[in-house]
Amino acid sequence: MTDSSRSQRDPAAAPEHVVFIVDDDVAMRETLGSLFRSVGLRVELFGSAREFAQIKMPNAASCLVLDIRLPGVSGLDFQAELAEAGIRVPIIFMTGHGDIPMSVQAMKAGAIDFLTKPFRDQEMLDAVARALERDQKRRDSEMAIAEIRVRLDSLTSREREVMAFVVEGLMNKQVAAKLGVSEITIKVHRVNMMRKMKARSVVDLVGMADSLGIRRPKA
Questions:
Q1: Residue range 189-201: average pLDDT?
Q2: 128, 93 Cβ separation under 8 angstroms
Q3: Which residues pair with 92 in a beta bridge?
Q4: CB count, 10 Å around CB of 11?
Q5: Which one of 58, 82, 105, 182 has the fewest beta carbons within 10 angstroms of its own beta carbon?
Q6: Which of 38-47, 104-113, 147-156, 183-192 is least confident?
Q7: What pLDDT is attached to residue 12?
């Protein structure tokens, strides 16, 4: 199999933004595919939710354009299944029927938009742009948090203790008293901890701790 054909068949093979289309209407799938390709987006087409469920998600920002009425599992049920599986791809729903209760349910569950056919091309393009932007921000945030966690894992147990107290706002003298060591020892641990965490200030360090959900000890 050539690289080009693999890229077309394996959504995980290329890094560019990907738009997945799931609709049992072949003409609609092809029309949307052409629309998205015309603005430089990569497209993967599926006739059912089950077909889409079998792929490996790409290491790239992506979104799912999903028909709400599908053979087998419905679009709303599939949205719930994806959430339960921890697959947080932004979803844009399409429907041929203006169903307000369905649209409310979809949006409450996190859908980007709910478009009634026939919709204008620009409406769909705008929705996809918002979805891809949201997914890119999520991916960037997750990568940043993963990097901070690697830094945290490089700390010694004592440096972690010092970090927790520094994040709480304690001075070196106070931390030394709590840990029963000298103030100069705390200064050394603090310098090493700040260097390993690549923190430019205490405020910077607090932001890192918050992003990791680290609970600060009570003074």
A1: 96
A2: no
A3: 65, 113
A4: 19
A5: 182
A6: 104-113
A7: 41
